[in-house]
Design brief:
- By secondary structure, the protein is α+β, with helices and mostly antiparallel strands.
- The chain has one helix and five strands; from the N terminus they run E-H-E-E-E-E.
- A five-stranded antiparallel beta sheet has the order 1-3-4-5-2, covered by helices on one side.
- A hairpin with a 3-residue loop joins strand 3 and strand 4.
- The two termini are 22 Å apart.
Length: 109
C-alpha cells in the first residue's frame, strides 16, 4: 500500500522544503491506510469496517523533500494482535529514503 503527493509551495517550511508536520501527516496516513487494508481484507460485505486510531507514531527525518518533489509512502505490517497493529515504512522521493516511520494502531471499532 502506498500513498503519495507532490510537495507544493503551500507545504513549504520557509526553506524550500516540505514542513515536518506535513511529513508526519503523510507518514500517519500511509501507515494508517496499510492498517485499514489489512484489518478489513477478509471482512464480509455486510460486516462493519474495522477502524483503528494511531496511538504512537515515530518519524525519523533523513532527507530533504523539495518543492516539486513527489513523495510516496511504503508501509508494511510487522505484527498484529486482537486490538493492536504494528506498522513501519519509509517515505521516498524516487529511490531516496527521506524519512522512516513506525506506528502502533489500536482498533477502536
Amino acid at each position: 500500500m502506498s500513498v503519495g503527493m507532490i510537495c507544493q509551495g503551500r507545504h513549504d517550511n520557509g526553506n524550500g522544503a516540505m514542513h515536518g508536520g506535513m511529513i508526519c501527516t503523510l507518514a500517519d496516513i500511509g501507515l494508517g491506510k496499510a492498517v485499514r487494508l489489512l484489518r478489513n481484507r477478509d471482512r464480509p460485505p455486510d460486516a462493519a469496517v474495522t477502524i483503528s486510531a494511531t496511538i504512537q507514531l515515530d518519524v525519523s527525518f533523513c532527507g530533504r523533500i523539495g518543492v516539486g518533489d513527489f513523495v510516496c509512502t511504503q508501509a508494511i505490517i510487522k505484527s498484529m494482535s486482537r486490538s493492536l497493529t504494528f506498522a513501519q515504512g519509509e517515505l521516498r522521493v524516487g529511490d531516496r529514503t527521506v524519512a522512516t516511520m513506525q506506528g502502533v494502531f489500536k482498533v477502536i471499532r
